[in-house]
Design brief:
Length: about 425
Amino acid sequence: MHRRRIGLIVATLLSTGLFAAGQGTNSNFTPKTPRKSTAPASPRQLTPQQNFVIDAVRLAVSLRQPDPQDRLRVLAVAADVISPIDQKTAKNLRREGVTIEAQLVQAGQRPAVSIMASGQADCALAQNFVTNLRENSVVAAEQSLVGALTSCRKQTLQVVAMKLDAALKRRIVAARALMATMEAMGTKSQWSQEHFEEMFRSLPDPKDNAFEAENFAAMYARMSSEVDQGIAKKTGLGLVEWLGKLDDGGMRSMAVNITSDAMKHALGDKGFEDAVSGDVVAGSVIRSVQNGAPAKIERPPVESASVLEAMKHNGSDQTASLRDLPASHRAREAAAHGFAAGTSGDKQQASKYFDMAFDAVDEVWDARRPEQNAAAVVEEVSEAAAQVDSVNAFMRAQKLRDSSAQAIAMLAVARVVAGTRVTH
């Protein structure tokens, strides 16, 4: 049944000549965004491209995604792709997505993407999401709560405030959500003033929450000048002592520097020196950071591929030099070379590169880990292929081994055909 539907979609593309939706040499494989229509098109006014997008979205969401994170990603992208054409379908997809997002955060998982954070969920859904959220899930739901406050403040502010208050009583601190709530309430409001102090009285076990160090320091830096100097002094010293319990490293040093700089701003130089000299522990932590070697924060290397660089090798086969690259890097580089060759008119060479790129995509997906964004590799390769030959790219997408990867790739092709680019 899926293959029959794919055949109909491909036939639509063939019959309308949609072989290359977005020619060019853009190094990010990003097609031009068309002007927005002032009104949604009626069914009789749909273009062949729009019909393709509708069919591709329906097929993608009909495929099975066993992992709820994958299902959420597919629904979020599908809703964004189809929204300019069919807002009713987009709304239904987002409704299902928000339900999955709620299930994930209730299980203590941070959603890989967030429809709530995008501001695209309607306010009734957002209110229901927040109302049913358990306080022990507020950290996992942080990006969702910030999105709810941003797009539906009237419906969610008081409920979010109650959830965060209940969480603080259990020493569960969602720093970014608290900051967003304080901004919404007003930083000088009684709620914000009280909960700023309460937050730093309720800091969780540093051994299990080191990843929050930067957020806590940023929260202090934002609010320390908005509160009484006595509170700024007390909370600042308490935060520095908490940071001192973390393993020594770049993140700890950066957080200590942010906090001490904010204390100087809030208390003045003399007030800061008096505060530090009166607290042996905090003073020792600050001095150790100031007197130590400059902090180095280890960041994972960013993989990228340059179409402009690939174009320098047009006319020569680079597949041999790409074979020894790690799968994700090989996928991106082969896609860049395929795009460069295809847009220069060498479709045969482009096909060889895309064979390599999509084979590498299967490898990436099979070996993926939670900390890796395998979906981004699938999207990048599929978009590059779609800009050379959308029919061929769609057929390649449906041949990927995993159904979730198939759906993500199909939506990437549909996005190129539609002439839009949505990032998650």
